[in-house]
Each structure stands twice: as structure tokens, then as C-alpha cells.
Write a structure and sequence with these properties.
19 helices; single chain; globular; two-stranded antiparallel ribbon; 70% helix; 522 residues
């Protein structure tokens, strides 16, 4: 907790220092003079300044300045996402039902960063929201595709084991060598998660089907002019708004059904709770070992004839004694007899204290509240920075759509904790851990198909925005279909991850091609 406080304090200080430095710069008189002269002469060749100076958070009109701000905001959002994940898992220590925490709370809180970025991308006047919403779609598409490709391959490589004659990976093998014929094996839970992911893809076809029908009524030349901004698309038919509403309703219905299924089928939640309990036990044992070995080493070094080798022997003996005692205590049944006389405790031996459930609940609530607050506060400036990176009115910018920048950047910030935890699960080289890894990845895609897509469609409907994301939706559906089919088996071999990871790059290329001058999709 102290590490997170220090990290947040440091980066908040740097960011607000940047804000003070930016706001303290006076406007350039020559620039404003050129603006005034151009207005008087009727010449609009000089670009008008943006409202960067009048914003609450720091901003910049240069590429380097926006990249620096993107880095700091990204670190803040990534740290906040980690706080939310840790705080949610700490609820398992409080004693709440694992089915509620693992099946309901953890998936919802895990999708909060992505949903927050999508929401703020749709805030503001309609004239700017239509362009800024590209950041929201980039977040939705990038988060789904990144989680189904990069950690999918990373977990496969890190957790690879040797494959037995029956086609099942043998736990704990494969270390120190690499082969494309190695792999991992998963339990049937992963197949269930893939089926659920496929079912939650269906709302995409509602809005996408309506848009395909609209494109069929327009000529190819008109579509190309609309795609490249050379013509106005006009007012979209009313059925596009109705399709957006229907998609939103089905998404939220799917979210409720998925949450209910997670609570009812609490197998994965029970495994996660068991893993959390084992981690806490290991940390307590390690802390106990450290206390005993440190104290004994200090006492031994005070003796006249103590040496370094003797100290090491004493530490090793204490570790073996406590570790063996712990194993025997866990394995042996507890007899129902009177306890024997306990040996006298050594002097100054520290008592092992456990935090009460009330303290754990307070810590968890504080971490969740602080993490959600940081996400809510800094999602808006992060969205502005990603938009400004591609703003052609700036002094320097990236000559691409905001969709491509957010496709790469925001998933790393909002899903960094899931990426790291999936790799840590896989590093155990056990089938049950690998199952948790891939269940978590497919579950994250399901949350994007329900909660995040529902939020996005709510913005489209209530803000009366135009739907121009056919290429992005098609790419999401193709990636989910391919990765779902690839994962619908018991054993994944290493070579299978190569085509899966190429889908990440292929997705960006496909969007560019579909929106290019040849196909001209919106």
C-alpha cells in the first residue's frame, strides 16, 4: 500500500507541476497579432488556437508534450487499475462468499477502467464527440483484441509443459527447454467461457446488420467521399438509432445473465479464492521464517565463537524446522486428546498477529474507492490527450486517426494488471492455474462484449451520434471467432500461439484496409 501511495503522490506532483508550467506561459503576442491581421484581411490561413490554455488539466499542442502527458496519465490509470484489482481480491480475505466476489464483483470492477474511458470519450458537445468517440471505440476494440492475443501467447510460452502420450500436458515439466510441440492443457471450464463469449457477440450483429443495410443503399463513390470527409453523410435513418437502442438493451441483458451464471457456477470463483488463501498462507510463513532467521542470526553473531558458516547453518536449521512442522501440521489429522505441555517460548519471540476482518474490509474499501476515483478523474484528460495526439490543428501531431492510438495505448493502461496476473498464473506450470489464466482472458472479452459495448451504444443512442464503426466491429468479431475456435480444445501447443498473436497486428491492418480508398467502409 505504501508503494502505491508513493507512486501516486510522485506522478500527481509531476503532472500538476506540468500543469502549472503550461498555464504559466503567456500567449505569444506575435501569434495573436497574426490571428488579428488574418481576421481583418479576411485571410483564414493562420490556424486558430485551441482551448488548451483554458482546460483544468495540463495539455499541449506539440507531439512531445502530448506523449509525455500520455505517459503520465497512462501510469496513473494503470496504477489505479492495479489498486482496484488488489482491493477486489482482498475482499476474499474478509469472508464474503467467493461466488459473489469472484463471479460478480471482480469482473465488474475489472471492466471499470475501460468503461470509464469509453464514457468520457462521449462527453461534451456533439460537434466534438463524434470525433472523440474514436478513442472509445479504440479502447473497446484494442482491449478485447489485446487480451485475446498477446497474453494468450505469453501465457502459453511461460506455462508450457511437456506433452504426455495421451496428449495432456504434464504439470511442472518443460523448464529449461523450448519446443513448438510443448504446450498447456486446460479444464472444461475454458470451453464454457468460450461459448459464453460467442453468445455475447450476438448484439454486435444488431447494429452491424442495420449499418450493412444502410451501406447497401448507398453508392460506392458516396461511401468513399463520406469515409474520407469529402461529403456529409447526412442524417442517418431512424432505424440506426433504434438498432443502437436494441444493441444496448441486449448488451445489458447479457451482462445480467453472465453475472448470474458466474454466481451460479462458482467453480472458477472457488479456485480463485483458494489461490488467494494459499498466497496469504505462503506470505505469512515466509514472514515467520524471516523473523526467526533474522533473530537467530543476530543472537548467533553475538556469541564469541560464531562465524558466518555457523550462522548460515543455524538459519537453515530453523527454516527446515518450521517448514517441516508446518507440513506435518497440515497433513496430520488433529487427535481429540488433551494437548501436551507446550515448550517454553523463547524470550522476545514475536507474536504472530493477523489483521481483523474489519481492518481488511476498510483497506479493501479504501483501495477500491481511491482506485475508482483516480480512474474517474484522469480518464477524461487521458481521452483528451489521445485526441490531441492526432489533432491536425496542433503544431505537431501523429497523422493517423485517434482510433489507432487508443487501440494500442489504453488497453495497456487499463488491463496491465490482468496481463501481469495471467502471466503469473501461467508461470506455475499447473493445469489448474492455466485454466484460470485462459478463463480470465475469455471472461474479460465477455465483459467487453456486454458492459463496455452497452455503454458505447448508450452514448450513440442518447447523444444521437452516427454509427461509423463497421470495420472495427468486423475485426472484433473475426478475432473473437478465430481465438475462440483455437481455444476450444483441451491442449494448446506452442505453435498455435504464433497465428493468434499475429491477429493483433492483422486487426490494425484490416481496419486500415477496410476504411481505405478501395473498400471505403465507414
Amino acid at each position: 500500500m505504501a508503494f502505491y501511495r508513493g507512486t501516486f503522490a510522485c506522478f500527481l506532483a509531476i503532472v500538476f507541476f506540468w500543469a502549472i508550467a503550461e498555464s504559466a506561459q503567456p500567449p505569444d503576442p506575435e501569434y495573436w497579432g497574426a490571428i488579428l491581421d488574418s481576421e481583418l484581411d479576411g485571410n483564414n490561413s493562420v490556424k486558430k488556437p485551441s482551448n488548451c490554455t483554458f482546460k483544468t488539466f495540463p495539455c499541449s499542442q506539440t507531439l512531445i508534450g502530448n506523449l509525455i502527458l500520455m505517459f503520465f496519465y497512462g501510469v496513473l490509470l494503470g496504477s489505479a487499475a492495479k489498486l482496484i484489482a488488489d482491493g477486489a481480491e482482498m475482499l476474499l480475505d474478509v469472508g464474503l462468499p467467493p461466488a459473489i466476489i469472484g463471479g460478480l464483483v471482480l469482473p465488474l470492477l475489472g471492466a471499470v477502467p475501460d468503461a470509464a474511458i469509453i464514457i468520457v470519450s462521449g462527453m461534451g458537445p456533439k460537434s466534438t464527440v463524434q470525433t472523440q468517440l474514436q478513442v472509445g471505440m479504440g479502447t473497446l476494440a484494442g482491449s478485447t483484441i489485446m487480451l485475446l492475443t498477446l497474453p494468450w501467447l505469453g501465457s502459453l510460452i511461460i506455462g508450457r509443459c511437456d506433452i504426455a502420450a495421451n496428449g495432456i500436458a504434464r504439470d511442472g515439466t518443460g523448464q529449461g527447454r523450448f519446443s513448438f510441440q510443448q504446450g498447456v492443457s486446460v479444464l472444461p471450464d475454458v470451453k464454457n467461457g468460450i461459448v459464453v463469449m460467442f453468445l455475447t457477440c450476438l448484439p454486435f450483429f444488431i447494429i452491424q446488420g442495420a449499418d450493412w443495410h444502410l451501406m447497401s443503399t448507398q453508392s460506392h463513390d458516396l461511401l468513399c467521399n463520406i469515409t474520407h470527409g469529402e461529403a456529409d453523410s447526412g442524417t442517418q435513418p431512424k432505424y440506426m438509432s433504434h438498432a443502437a437502442l436494441a444493441t444496448m438493451i441486449f448488451c445489458f441483458m447479457g451482462l445480467i445473465a453472465y453475472m448470474a451464471f458466474q454466481v451460479y457456477d462458482a467453480t472458477s470463483a472457488q479456485r480463485r479464492a483458494s489461490k488467494r488463501k494459499n498466497e496469504v498462507t505462503v506470505r505469512r510463513i515466509a514472514a515467520r521464517f524471516y523473523q526467526m532467521t533474522s533473530r537467530t542470526a543476530f543472537q548467533t553473531n553475538d556469541a564469541p565463537d560464531s562465524g558466518e558458516s555457523q550462522s548460515l547453518l543455524n538459519q537453515e536449521g530453523i527454516q527446515k524446522k518450521y517448514f517441516n512442522a508446518w507440513k506435518v501440521r497440515r497433513a496430520a489429522p488433529q487427535p481429540n486428546v488433551a494437548p501436551a505441555a507446550e515448550p517454553e517460548k523463547e524470550e522476545d519471540e514475536p507474536e504472530e498477529k493477523e489483521e481483523s476482518k474489519g481492518v481488511l474490509a476498510a483497506k479493501s474499501a479504501a483501495m477500491l474507492a481511491f482506485g475508482v476515483a483516480v480512474v474517474c478523474v484522469f480518464s477524461d484528460p487521458m481521452c483528451d490527450v489521445l485526441t490531441e495526439l492526432t489533432n491536425t490543428d496542433n503544431e505537431s501531431y501523429i497523422p493517423v486517426k485517434a482510433f489507432y492510438v487508443s487501440f494500442v495505448v489504453t488497453p495497456i493502461c487499463s488491463n496491465a494488471s490482468e496481463l501481469v496476473s495471467s502471466l503469473m498464473f501461467a508461470a506455475k506450470r499447473k493445469r489448474i492455474n492455466t485454466t484460470m489464466t485462459y478463463s480470465q482472458l475469455y471472461g474479460a472479452a465477455t465483459m467487453n462484449n456486454t458492459l463496455c459495448l452497452g455503454v458505447f451504444m448508450a452514448l450513440v443512442y442518447f447523444k444521437d451520434l452516427e454509427w461509423e464503426y463497421s470495420a472495427e466491429v468486423l475485426v472484433i468479431l473475426l478475432v473473437e471467432l478465430i481465438v475462440g475456435i483455437a481455444g476450444y480444445r483441451e491442449t494448446y501447443r506452442v505453435w498455435l500461439g504464433i497465428p493468434v498473436v499475429f491477429l493483433y497486428v492483422l486487426a490494425i491492418v484490416m481496419v486500415a484496409v477496410l476504411e481505405g480508398p478501395t473498400i471505403c467502409w465507414k
